[in-house]
Amino acid sequence: MRAMTADPPERAAGPSTGSPRATTSEAPPSPALPPGFDPSRPRGGLGLDPRPGIAGLTPAALEAWVRERGEPSYRARQILDAVWRSFARQPDELTTLPKPLRAALGEAFRLDTIAESEVRVADAGRTEKVLHRLCDGAVVESVVMHYPAGPGHRERHTVCISSQAGCAVGCPFCATGELGFTRDLEAAEILDQVRDAARRLAERGRRVTNVVFMGMGEPLLNLDAVLAAVEALNDPRRFGLGARHITVSTSGVVPGIRRLTELGVQFTLAVSLHAARDPLRDVLVPLNRRWPVAEVVAAARDHARATGRRVSYEVTLIAGVNDTPTDAAALAELLAGELAHVNLIPMNPVAHTPWTASPPEAVERFAAILRRAGIPVTIRSNRGVEIGAACGQLAAERAGAPPPPAVQRRRERLLRASAAALRRARLADGARAGSAGPAVAAASERG
Ligand code: SF4
């Protein structure tokens, strides 16, 4: 979901970099296939490359591959270092390996699954939006956000990555939702977005400090590949990022949240809520028709209790749609007593919607109602609006804007749907205010 959000400044970003276009190979896929890699899956587009991405390989799989070639096991360590410390893109860069092994590695694996990257810089260098073209022509986006050091914390460099090319959920305020779904990403394709950012940061003596799965796609609908990517990011032999610096978001895939809870993985869970009442959430997050908001919050509550980790709830605020005192009070009631933190994010403008960001005073009023109810809140500022940093905006631009009549029809449809949803929500509030729901009733009077 995902407007890119932020805090204060940093320095200018470096020049646009692009990894070299990947080559194709007739070599058969390695038997050590990484999670999320399915060689039988249709992979149309610019190039068909049957080699799995090396970043998706576990150390055990890599050691097995090295052993099969009669090489000593320390070669696996050298390869891991090249992939995860030097962020190598080509076999030639692995100069510690003998040439025949380098050649064999290049025949078996893609050192980089990203064919080309285009970087756009905004916010005086604090935001870098990157459009990645994958080896089959699919396009995904990542964003690097720089935060300066402040009282009690060091500088941070957060990478927001995509887990799918496009998205099937279809949230109407999101440019990715408008694009539709292309395909799941392999673990290596997810990880190579992080390696791309890490490579550019390393050139400036910096490193990635946080990774958030809040780019294109619904991570819990590509759960195996996302879990494999999280494991690689967290593994000290690979990327070595602490689990508390990794956030996985979901728009409310309840079975996925339940599975994460069973696994007990210690990263932060972020739930993109956007509305606390079903009629409105049905419009803003269509997945809500399958898993209503109460079920989503119940699953998130169980996750928080099982892991002891606070759940982060994301609310994109849209002027006049979900930013009223009644909405805030309904959210306060829904999250009362939860181990929760709410992030409020004014909506990034998206061409196909009729909606705009909530004004600052509405955001402050919303936050105040939550705080009065004892719920911690952070107001995020939008990042990279001038470069289309909200998820899917660049890719949508590349896909070609829909013709104006289609945009107009979509805007009218959204206006009708949201107006009807608001009417239904208000009727439900009226009924509840007559019997219970004191916070909602009080807020309705104030609003
Ligand atoms: S359409 Fe997909 S990517 Fe966009 S906000 Fe919804 S779940 Fe997230």
Any overview of this molecule?
By secondary structure, this protein is α/β, with parallel strands linked by helices. It has a single domain (114-435), classed as Alpha-Beta Barrel (TIM Barrel). The chain is 38% helix and 16% strand. It is built from 14 helices and 14 strands. The strands form three sheets. A ten-stranded mixed beta sheet has the order 2-3-4-5-8-9-10-11-12-13, with helices on one face. Strand 2 (114-122) and strand 3 form a beta hairpin. Helix 1 crosses helix 2 (74-84) and helix 10 (325-335) packs antiparallel against helix 14 (438-446). It is elongated, with a radius of gyration of 23 Å. The two termini are 27 Å apart. It binds iron/sulfur cluster. Iron/sulfur cluster binds next to helix 4.
Structural features:
447 residues; alpha/beta; TIM Barrel; 10-stranded mixed beta sheet; two-stranded antiparallel sheet; 16% strand; disordered N terminus; binds iron/sulfur cluster
- What's the arrangement of strands in the largest beta sheet? 2-3-4-5-8-9-10-11-12-13
Oligomer: single chain
Associated small molecules:
iron/sulfur cluster
Helix content: 25-40%
Low-confidence stretches: 1-37, 39-46, 436-447
Q: State which percent range the strand residues make up.
A: 15-25%
Order of helices and strands: EHHHEEEEEHEHEHEHEHHEHEHEEHHH
Integer average pLDDT: 83
Per CATH, the class reads: Alpha Beta
The number of strands is 14
Distance between the termini: 27 Å
Number of helices: 14
Radius of gyration: 23 Å
What is the CATH homology-level superfamily? Aldolase class I
**CATH architecture term:** Alpha-Beta Barrel
CATH topology group: TIM Barrel
